[in-house]
Amino acid sequence: MTHPSHEHDLGFAQDLPRMVGRRRLIALMGGLGLASATGVPASALECVSLPWETAGPYPADGSNAKRGQTVNALIEDGVIRHDLRPSFGNLTPVADGVPLELELTLQDAAGCSPLSGHAIYVWHCDVAGKYSLYDTTDANYLRGVGLADADGKVRFTTIVPGCYDGRWPHIHFEVFQSVEAAVSGEASVLTAQIALPGETAATVYAGDSRYPDGARNLGRITLASDNVFADNSAEQLQQQTLAMTGDIATGYRGTVTIPVDFKAERSASRPPRSGGWFFGRKPPRPPSDN
């Protein structure tokens, strides 16, 4: 399966100058207006700030290492992109799975106003519950950075993530003040996770053979027992659960609004860096207490 190259898949050296100059002029993503998993229109949800969550062991954001080598996809050419399924840079594998058109709306929780010009880095596992660059070392698919348009919207094409044993199916993300902040190693303004709706996930795992053990693993856990989502309030869970419509044959569309509280506690942010400089980048500043 091949994927056409896109202007926004050329890497930071070519993308960044153009994107910074055009960020308020180009609407990179469009609106979907989908219903939430509970049947309440996403636009009707209150603006509930999302809690900080762990980035987990597979962020590839320069905060950890594998076999002594720092893993950092954020400095690689091609990480600013729309389609997350192909690998980028010098890697070639492509992720297979049920297509998912993902729309994320970034908001300032104070007033629920759009975070125009902010960047978001997203990553998630493949159909088998494996993460690129860690479990699958010859691939860097299912990772990418997008820039919010004037309405705070960012859109990606990806696949429905698989479900591995011990975790509810989810998507990781980090929000940054700008693309420059994401690539320069600054601390995120929010690190958190998006939960998939259980009914849709169960349908995909039971109906598509490309998701080995997905149905079995999902059956062993609930959102209430997940070690990341379990301590969140009902309102927070509703806010951070992806609203999905579609089917296995044609693919799914999903939306979620991500309100950022810039004064929130950040105790569950990135794991400690191993020290030193990474590929010419200074490690991120520790989160501010202000």
What do these coordinates show?
Helix content is 13%, strand content 23%. The N terminus and C terminus are likely disordered. The longest helix is centred in the first third of the chain and has 11 residues. It is globular. It has a single domain, classed as Sandwich (Protocatechuate 3,4-Dioxygenase, subunit A), CATH 2.60.130.10. The chain is an alpha+beta fold and 290 residues long. Strands 3, 4, 7, 10 and 11 form a five-stranded mixed sheet that branches. Strands 6-5-8-9 form a four-stranded antiparallel sheet.
Task: State the gist of this model.
Helices cover about 15% and strands about 25% of the residues.
Secondary structural class: alpha+beta
Tell how many strands the DSSP assignment holds.
11
CA-CA gap between termini: 48 Å
Tally of helical runs: 5
Order of helices and strands: HEEEEEEEEHEHHHEE
In the CATH hierarchy, the third-tier topology is known as Protocatechuate 3,4-Dioxygenase, subunit A
Mean pLDDT: 81
**Tally of domains:** 1
Instruction: Give the % helix.
Output: 10-25%
CATH architecture annotation name: Sandwich
The CATH class, by name, is Mainly Beta
Keywords: Dioxygenase, Oxidoreductase
Region (Disordered): 263-290
Domain Intradiol ring-cleavage dioxygenases: 97-167
GO molecular function: ferric iron binding; oxidoreductase activity, acting on single donors with incorporation of molecular oxygen, incorporation of two atoms of oxygen
